[in-house]
Amino acid sequence: MFERLTDKLSSALKSLRFRGKISEEDVKSAIREIKLALLEADVNYGIVRDFVGRIQALVINQEVMKSLTPLQHIIKIVREELVTLLGSQSEQIKFSSMDPSIILLCGLQGSGKTTHAAKLAFFLKNKCKKNPVLVACDIYRPAAIEQLKSLGSKALVPVFEQGKVSPIQIAQNSVQYAKNNNHDVIILDTAGRLHVDKELMEELRGIKVGVAVSETLLVVDSMAGQSIVAVASAFDDMVSVDGIILSKIDSDARGGAAISVRAAIQKPIKFMGTGERLADLDVFHPDRIASRILGMGDTLSLIEEAEAAFDAEQQRKIEKSLQENNFSFDDLLANMQAIKKLGSLKNIVSMIPGVGGKITEEQFEKSEKELIKTKAIISSMTLQERQNPDIIKASRKKRIADGSGHKVEDVNRLFKQFEMMRQAMKQFSSYRKKQKSNEK
Description:
Rossmann fold, Four Helix Bundle (Hemerythrin (Met), subunit A), alpha/beta, eight-stranded mixed β-sheet, 434 Repressor (Amino-terminal Domain), 19 helices
């Protein structure tokens, strides 16, 4: 996500790294590079022109803060302007004061509407403790209803559908269904077209007249480049959108869509699709995204995801195991499974300040393979062996190696790493216990 833009911006600012003072010409040179980086990222030209103009005026007219280097000063200004451009602060869905709240999802065909309707339902159910229902209002695309039902089943969210009945009537009938079944949120998955057309817009307006829509969210494909501005503007002009969901942002190395669409229609980006899983829908935080674009990582998001992934009861068990010197391969496997919930290793590392860009694709692939190998070796152990690693001697190691499809050397290496990890975690646990004691 934003990988190419991050690299280009880092390169643009690199020339100022070791300068004690910066001249106006130095600033203009760096600004030209920033402008080029944004244009190559497919950010709308008018937005780039205004953005770099503000940065140049601020950098040249402000006195460099004594506590900062010139480079830090410019990065600070660029980051602040990026945050403003992206929307200043995150904005949540505005629910109706009376249930059910109705959320209408709209967008072009192929933008990811149906998938993100299910993702949004999953998010509201698990993060907001809502009881949503998905409504199949796309009666035109072949298998659209079946796709929504399949995704709803995976999300454990019911789907209301009435076949090829008028979408407006389906939306109206879904309200009574929601009331009868205690659903406090209705998510309308509407039809898309290959391009913006009058028929599509009239249908969307008809739905908004027919039911009291609380939020109209436009789903746009972040890979669509500059065309995203024209699409967002057309939908906003004709049906008035309240917010944006950026889909496929995990595949967008450029990042231009996120920067362009918010500035173009002045409507907040509320969510972004970050992967293929139902859980891969994140709240859009402008300040965190700005930091990621500038290669500063996203520690807050990493902490939030880790807290959601790591079961508190499991962590208490592991801490107890460490205190009693009983940390086992079962504990290690539980932690590995929790880490997997955070997504790919590349995604995790990209959130760590100053680390993501320094690790090559080859190193990522090697690390991912090592994790797969470790899981295979542990899975080849018996329950007794996983819980009591000290009983594993040469003959058992040979059996484990054969069972996992690896060499005895791989098993020995894992044991060595496991022992080092056990000692390090034990020391950390003791340190935390001492800290808590001191706080009392």
